[in-house]
Amino acid sequence: MKATFQGLNSMYRRIPRKNLQAFGLALARAALLLAYLFPIVWVFLTSIKPPILTVTPKPVWIFQPTLVSYQALFRKYDFGRFISNSLTIAFWSTLITTALSTTAAYALSRHAIRRRDDIAFWILSTRMLPPIASVLPVFILMRTWGLLDTKLSMIVMYSVFNIPLSVWIIKAFMAQLPKELEEAALVDGCSVLRAFTRIALPLSLPGIVAAATLTFILAWNEFTFALVLAQMKAKTFPVAIAGFQAKHGLFLGELSAGAIVGTLPILVVALLLGRYIVAGLTVGALK
Question: Is 135 in contact with 224 (CB distance < 8 Å)?
Answer without folding.
Answer: yes
